[in-house]
């Protein structure tokens, strides 16, 4: 997992990084060694090195020069729509502006004096970051060769049954027909709360649901996923719960 922290106040940046590392070591010791934290005291230098998919989380101070945190986030969003953004701020005055760039929360400065607020926000964000690291390995046929493909959970839009009664995994950029059974794929995904079996042998990633129309889920690309009558009540409740749990802190 890669994290970037950007703050033009060197003392604040060092203090935030130290607190962050200590919290990871204390609360998430198993994964802490795999977390890389890059720090930047110049927002323009950060932007010159930023590229899509380089970081999983950005922690941006709001009050920076020559670009403030909101401006940095706007530029970032032009390159990467998925990276999580958290703002560092001395007050909540500009937090609503953060919603415009789809920030997922904020930390009050100094973090060491606002531990309760930090713990609440980080406790909400970090499990989602860990979930985005999850993968499922599926056997596929590539030409005349059989092999395994490792797929990030977050890139799976939905799973259904395709040709030859094989599971088809619909990703954000391609579809993969697997020699894994549907039951095996279901078992691999069932503990990830983003996934919902809303119809017989159809699993949908709720992160990709745009709306509900009649008895269908409509995905962000316009695909309609049916909701079975038998599963309708439970599926809709789980989707509403997902919406609530993925809102801003």
Question: Main traits of this protein?
Answer:
7 helices; five-stranded antiparallel beta sheet; alpha/beta; about 250 residues; five-stranded parallel beta sheet; 2 domains; elongated; OB fold (Dihydrolipoamide Acetyltransferase, E2P); Rossmann fold
List the helices and strands and how they pair.
Elements (H helix, E strand, L loop, with lengths): L1 E5 L3 H18 L8 E5 L2 H7 L7 E5 L7 H9 L6 E6 L5 H5 L5 E4 L6 H17 L3 E8 L2 E8 L3 E6 L5 E5 L3 E3 L4 H8 L5 E5 L2 E4 L3 E5 L2 E4 L4 E3 L5 H14 L4
What is shown here, in short?
With 249 residues, the protein is α/β, with parallel strands linked by helices. It has seven helices and 15 strands.
Question: What does this protein look like?
Answer:
This protein folds into two domains: 2-131, Rossmann fold; 135-245, Beta Barrel (OB fold (Dihydrolipoamide Acetyltransferase, E2P)). 31% of the residues lie in helices and 31% in strands. The protein has seven helices and 15 strands. The strands form four sheets. A five-stranded parallel sheet has the order 2-1-3-4-5, with helices on both faces. The relative contact order is 0.09. The mean pLDDT is 89.
In percent terms, what proportion of residues is strand? 25-35%
CATH architecture of the largest domain: 3-Layer(aba) Sandwich
N-to-C CA distance: 21 Å
**CATH top-level class of the largest domain:** Alpha Beta
Secondary-structure element pattern, one letter each: EHEHEHEHEHEEEEEHEEEEEH
Strand order of the largest sheet: 2-1-3-4-5
Q: What is the number of strand segments?
A: 15
What spatial form do the alpha-carbon principal axes imply?
elongated
Full CATH superfamily name of the largest domain = Response regulator
């Amino acid at each position: 997992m890669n994290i970037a922290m950007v703050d033009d106040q060197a003392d604040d940046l060092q203090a935030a990084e130290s607190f962050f590392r200590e919290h990871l070591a204390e609360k998430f010791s198993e994964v802490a060694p795999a977390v890389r934290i890059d720090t930047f005291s110049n927002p323009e230098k950060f932007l010159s090195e930023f590229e899509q998919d380089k970081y999983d989380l950005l922690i941006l101070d709001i009050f920076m020069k020559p670009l403030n945190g909101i401006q940095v986030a706007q530029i970032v969003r032009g390159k990467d729509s998925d990276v999580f953004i958290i703002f560092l701020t001395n007050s909540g005055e500009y937090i609503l502006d953060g919603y415009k760039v789809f920030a997922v929360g904020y930390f009050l400065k100094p973090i060491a004096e606002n531990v309760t607020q930090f713990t609440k926000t980080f406790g909400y964000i970090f499990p989602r970051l860990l979930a985005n690291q999850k993968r499922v390995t599926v056997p596929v046929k590539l030409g005349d060769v059989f092999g395994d493909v490792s797929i990030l959970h977050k890139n799976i839009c939905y799973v259904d049954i395709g040709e030859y009664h094989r599971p088809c995994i619909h990703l954000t950029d391609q579809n993969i027909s697997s020699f894994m059974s549907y039951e095996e794929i279901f078992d691999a995904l069932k503990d990830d709360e983003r996934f919902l079996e809303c119809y017989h042998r159809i699993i949908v990633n709720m992160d990709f649901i745009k709306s509900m129309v009649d008895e269908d889920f409509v995905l962000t690309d316009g695909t309609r996923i049916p909701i079975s009558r038998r599963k309708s009540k439970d599926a809709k409740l789980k989707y509403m719960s997902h919406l609530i749990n993925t809102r801003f802190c």
